[in-house]
Amino acid sequence: MSADDLSFRALHRRDFPLLQAWLSRPHVDAWWHERLDLAGLERHYGPTIDGREPTHVFVIEHHQEPIGFIQWYRWADYSEHAAQLGAERDSAGIDFAIGVPELIGRGIGPRAIRAFLERIVFVEPGIAACVSDPETRNTRSLRAFEKAGFVAVRTVQLPGEPCERTVVRCSATRR
Fold first, then answer.
1. At the top level of CATH, which class does the domain 6-128 belong to?
2. Which helix (H) or strand (E) holds 164?
């Protein structure tokens, strides 16, 4: 199945109402826990948009229609969290959510992950792998990562969190 119908564009402030709607949907809120008002979105995502934070947030588009969001970052910029996961300094992390409920379970998540890695993350100099840490109970996300070529490497319990996370990894050379 091709990913030609998927594209990625940088998040803009004009996307905040859409992002707010996605974050409040039950299937996203269950895992993201970020029901933010517009002021909260500005505080959380404004510095990223302005380039003051090292995370890069994108809107996922399917047939040029926004359907979700995906972000990436270098684990070297988040060394404490990286150490808790066992993520190497030369690896990236990604997080994503499909915000449109009707598109869940149609294979778009794994295709979006693969396309994002190929087009955005793994073209960055010095990125050797991608490591992510979805909640272990988030079987849909774990399955999407698995279908995208990730392998579960460990389970961790992060300080202050009530749930376990499954650390998944994909080498840039395994694409």
1. alpha beta
2. strand 164-171
